């Protein structure tokens, strides 16, 4: 089979179909959307999920000029075999706000709107619509445009399909750094609210210029902040749209088989090993409380696969610009949540106490920042869900909860947690010597890194630090750079297939049998003024003894007892000192 190209950074449907790029067919959802007869569907997903490609598919499918191109473009797709009644029946007006720069925002917004209108005029020259370039306001420009369209269209029934991609991209950037600017542009006389008011009016007139909409974005914050300027039907959490963009596991495997010669990779890596890497950073999303499959972030998967193809081997480079957001910017978003709720949410995600509390709430549909109030816990969870930092999950008793989808976002939360609760900033990205741990079992780099983290977050904050939070931070921030290991904090112990009440602090499973795996038990003893040296020594001895006894019990776990080259360690942080010892099978 001839291999296809990976569609990296390509959101043009025509280019994908005609340029021999791999394509995962999502066109069946066009049928679903049209059958529900929603005039203004709003579809929200985190960034980098493939929203732009889907909007381009809609534009190509509904374009009144695209009749002759229908079979070449859609002939091998679901919708090509099951066309809907409204196929190729609209003039397409598409706005893409993903490139609007937040600097000089009003002018950049106007330029983007004007460019979209001029593109419309060039694609439909027979309408003879002209843009008044002296008009410097986006809303006024829309009034003149719709007036001209209604005079020029051949029939009164001809309508425009308005597609708005990334409607809130610039707004979320503003929201992270300048709340007042956000309120100004979405308030009563704001230029964004006025623009959407014109669209709303153009869709409600008796001889309406606009027949349908489709809007994509990241969160509902801006749309709720301009509610009187626009109405929409949020379809984002409906079960039937969970898989509309992104990849299921089967779809991702299909993409790999379309684009990669796995026979040539024999001896280097298998498809399953590649999938395990992709799962680590890019899987885990569920956008409805009722879902069949978790979703992978499609754009991030394609970028990683492109790196693997280029290198000819698996790589630990999972970084993505959006996931690796600057802590200051992420902190700006978190600061929208009132302090007590912000602290509670951060501690739950970081496993920073012993309560084992889950994030349980219903999503808030109305996230209106213009009320002037900080977000509640529920609203904060909702904001993070829409931005992709949290997603739907299920706990041990089957209850719907919100969880961090993957390791990439968990690292972001933990970096934020460190910066939020502790005065001394801790370096968490550049620890040396960690790779020697999985290759040769050398713990020196790990112990040094762990000491750096602990010494950075302990001073003056011991009341805020738990053993559980230190293990979580160590296991995620320090060890996530390991190339060949799976890291499990709070590892559940199973005996004969049954879960016990015990959990090992840290398990590191090497996927190469000849290389070392690790079972680590951690003890943290707080400093107290009344502790004398003899008391400290006695407490350290007791902690080491307890850790060794726990390790012996854990070794009967179904998986650990079959794990080759398993190294057992106890680590005790006590009274300002770090002790690491290898534990044998005997007490």
Please give a structural write-up.
The protein is of the alpha/beta class. Among the domains are: 51-241, no CATH class; 423-587, tt1808, chain A. Helix content is 41%, strand content 14%. The chain has 22 helices and 12 strands. It has helices at residues 13-18, 28-35, 51-62, 70-74, 78-81, 105-123, 138-152, 169-177, 179-186, 191-204, 221-225, 249-259, 271-282, 298-311, 327-334, 339-349, 377-387, 407-421, 435-440, 444-457, 467-478, 533-554; strands spanning 41-44, 91-96, 160-165, 210-217, 233-234, 391-394, 400-403, 485-495, 498-510, 517-525, 566-574, 577-582. A 5-stranded parallel β-sheet has the order 2-3-4-1-5, with helices on both faces. Strands 8-9-10-11-12 form a 5-stranded mixed β-sheet.
Give unreliable regions as ranges: none
Approximately how much helix is present in the residues?
40-55%
Mean pLDDT: 86
Query: Largest sheet, order of strands side by side?
Result: 2-3-4-1-5
Shape: globular
Helix-and-strand structural type: alpha/beta
Largest sheet: 5 strands, parallel
Tell me the span between the first and last alpha carbons.
59 Å
Rg calc: 27 Å
How many strand elements?
12
Beta-strand percentage range? 5-15%
**Total of helices:** 22
Write the SSE topology:
Layout: H1 13-18, H2 28-35, E1 41-44, H3 51-62, H4 70-74, H5 78-81, E2 91-96, H6 105-123, H7 138-152, E3 160-165, H8 169-177, H9 179-186, H10 191-204, E4 210-217, H11 221-225, E5 233-234, H12 249-259, H13 271-282, H14 298-311, H15 327-334, H16 339-349, H17 377-387, E6 391-394, E7 400-403, H18 407-421, H19 435-440, H20 444-457, H21 467-478, E8 485-495, E9 498-510, E10 517-525, H22 533-554, E11 566-574, E12 577-582
Parallel strand pairs: 1-4, 1-5, 2-3, 3-4, 10-11
Antiparallel strand pairs: 6-7, 8-9, 9-10, 11-12
Helix pairs in contact: 6-7, 7-10, 8-15, 16-18, 18-21, 20-21
């Amino acid at each position: 089979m001839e291999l296809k190209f990976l569609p990296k950074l390509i959101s043009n449907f025509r280019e994908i179909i005609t340029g021999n790029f791999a394509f995962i067919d999502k066109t069946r959802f066009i049928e679903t959307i049209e059958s529900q007869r929603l005039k203004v569907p709003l579809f929200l997903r985190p960034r980098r999920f493939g929203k732009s490609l889907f909007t381009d598919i809609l534009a190509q499918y509904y374009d009144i000029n695209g009749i002759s191109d229908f079979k070449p473009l859609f002939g091998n797709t679901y919708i090509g075999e099951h066309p809907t009644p409204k196929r190729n029946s609209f003039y397409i007006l598409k706005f893409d706000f993903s490139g609007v720069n937040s600097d000089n925002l009003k002018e950049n917004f106007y330029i983007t709107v004007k460019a979209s209108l001029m593109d419309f005029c060039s694609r439909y020259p027979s309408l003879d619509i002209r843009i008044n370039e002296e008009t410097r306001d986006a809303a006024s420009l829309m009034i003149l445009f719709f007036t001209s369209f209604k005079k020029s269209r051949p029939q009164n029934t001809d309508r425009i399909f308005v597609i708005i991609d990334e409607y809130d991209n610039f707004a979320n950037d503003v929201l992270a750094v300048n709340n007042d600017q956000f309120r100004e542009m979405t308030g009563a006389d704001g230029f964004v609210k006025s623009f959407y008011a014109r669209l709303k009016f153009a869709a409600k007139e008796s001889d309406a210029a606009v027949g349908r909409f489709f809007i994509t974005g990241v969160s509902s914050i801006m749309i709720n902040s301009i509610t009187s300027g626009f109405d929409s039907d949020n379809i984002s959490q409906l079960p039937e749209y969970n898989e509309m963009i992104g990849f299921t596991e089967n779809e991702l495997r299909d993409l790999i088989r379309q684009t990669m010669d796995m026979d040539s990779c024999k001896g280097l890596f298998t498809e399953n090993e590649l999938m395990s890497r992709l799962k680590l950073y890019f899987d885990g999303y569920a956008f409805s409380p009722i879902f069949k499959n978790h979703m992978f972030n499609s754009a991030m998967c394609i970028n990683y696969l492109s790196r693997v193809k280029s290198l000819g081997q698996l790589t630990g480079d999972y970084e993505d610009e959006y996931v690796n957001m600057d802590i200051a910017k992420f902190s700006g978003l978190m600061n929208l949540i009132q302090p007590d709720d912000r602290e509670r949410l951060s501690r739950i995600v970081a496993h920073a106490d012993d309560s084992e509390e889950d994030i349980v709430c219903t999503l808030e549909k109305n996230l209106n920042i213009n009320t002037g109030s900080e977000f509640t816990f529920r609203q904060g969870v909702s904001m993070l869900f829409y931005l992709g930092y949290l997603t739907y999950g299920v706990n041990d008793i089957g209850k719907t909860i919100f969880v961090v989808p993957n390791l990439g976002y968990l690292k972001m939360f933990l970096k934020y947690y460190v910066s939020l609760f502790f005065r001394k900033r801790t370096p968490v990205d550049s620890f040396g010597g960690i790779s020697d741990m999985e290759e040769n079992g050398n713990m020196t780099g790990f112990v040094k890194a762990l000491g750096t983290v602990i010494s950075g977050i302990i001073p003056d904050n011991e009341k805020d630090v738990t053993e559980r939070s230190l293990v979580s931070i160590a296991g995620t921030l320090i060890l996530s750079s390991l190339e060949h290991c799976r890291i499990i904090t709070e590892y559940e112990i199973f005996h004969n297939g049954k879960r016990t009440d015990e959990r090992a602090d840290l398990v590191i499973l090497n996927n190469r049998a000849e290389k070392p795996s690790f079972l680590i038990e951690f003890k943290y003893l707080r400093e107290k003024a009344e502790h004398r040296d003899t008391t400290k020594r006695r407490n350290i001895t007791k902690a080491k003894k307890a850790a060794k006894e726990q390790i012996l019990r854990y070794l009967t776990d179904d998986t650990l007892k079959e794990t080759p080259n398993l190294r057992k360690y106890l680590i005790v942080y006590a009274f300002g000192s770090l002790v690491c010892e290898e534990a044998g099978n005997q007490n």
